[in-house]
histidine kinase
Amino acid sequence: MSIKSKLILSFFGMIIIPLILITTFNFMFDKYFWEDDKSIVNAANPYYLTRKVFVNYSEISRKVNLNIINDTDKVKDISFLKSLDNDLDTIYSGIILRQNNEILYSSEILRNDLFFNELPKFNSDYNMDNYIFLENGYVIFSQNDFYFNDGSKGSVFYAFNLNLLRKDIKLARRLLSSIIIISILITSNFLTFAIYKDIIKKLNKLKYASNEIKNGNLNYTIEKHSKDEFGDLSINFEEMRIKLKESIDIQMKYEENRKNLTSNISHDLKTPIMSIKGYIEGIKDGVADSPEKMDKYINTIYKKATDMEVLIDELFLFSKLDLKKVSFNFQNINIVDYLKYCVEDLSFDLEKKNANINLNNEKEEIFVTADLQKLKRVIVNIVDNAMKYMDKQNPKIDINLIDNREYVTIEVKDNGIGIPKESIPFIFDRFYRADESRNTSISGSGLGLSICKQIIESHGGNMWAESEINIGTSILFTLKKYKGNDDHEKNSNN
């Protein structure tokens, strides 16, 4: 539950609900007990207290009538009258016995001289459906007139003390209101403390985590501990920590790579520069004392300068690829026709080296999305790299096309010296060579396969190598198939 929802429910719990309870309680008391003094007894409403009053009065009236029938003087028996009092006292009522105009007995709860003066006269028109409300807070529910044995007039009254009921109800209302108020205070304090404790606890966790990160501990993890805003915040906080850690790790890796790159560039540039410098010094010292030697020195200097230019160009391209600043011109092409063109183009130079290159494929049309120039560079780099490490008298390069469901896998396989198993994972690293001595007997910048891998990954594909010593090496990469391949295949089948 969100904090907002908790606070809203807490507000209702602390304020609105208790107010509704108090209002409802007071309304019920006013409605069911006294909207005015004369509505207190309404026998038609079963919820009123008077329902119980009438039931008791009926039972007591029956007992009195039986005694009057048998012996009217027995009604004067104090013990009998007190027994009736015990039943009436619980409902704020009592009994009055009058002989002529003299009060012979009255219940303790009804002791009031003014009240006695207002009692109805003998043989009045009073009946059960016409009870009497007196000004001093009493209600006459029933009057039973009869004659004593001596012929004197007798009357038994059943009366209700409204003042006592009102007093007790007011006391009950005040008590209940006090209980509700106290409940509000306890509930509000409990809910406020609970929410405060919950929020502070979660804030302290986030505070501790932020201090850990501030102090450089990026390995400190914080788990989602609730399904509210703090839970979402903890998720965002953890994602921020992970990205920050990854960013720092990448930065450290880049820094390490930068140092290695600087060292490698220095090494690869220093060798041709020293060679150029040496040949120039030879020319200055007159060592090249014949036109043949002079041409040899100048051609060597030119070749070394060209190698440096190639290295610088590849460094520039690699840097742009690494920074994602190289633009690509993707097109939907038939990769079969394109590879045929590449094989035909490369075969002229390879024939001079007694090498053979072939394309092996069963289908005539497979469409992929690729940048033609960048893809040509990938294939040329792989083939050139294969020829540099070729040790066979009859070099052979096979290009195999494997049609998968969503990708096309292109394999460039040679029969060269192979790559040691432990070196295969690193051949796509910049400046890496399986020859640890980094000798210069094999020319090249050491960036060719790294550039190829970045170009293929920019196409949304992948590149890897498989190799066996003295048998050969396979460089494989994937390209995404064009989504319209299915339509082309259907048309070709038709």
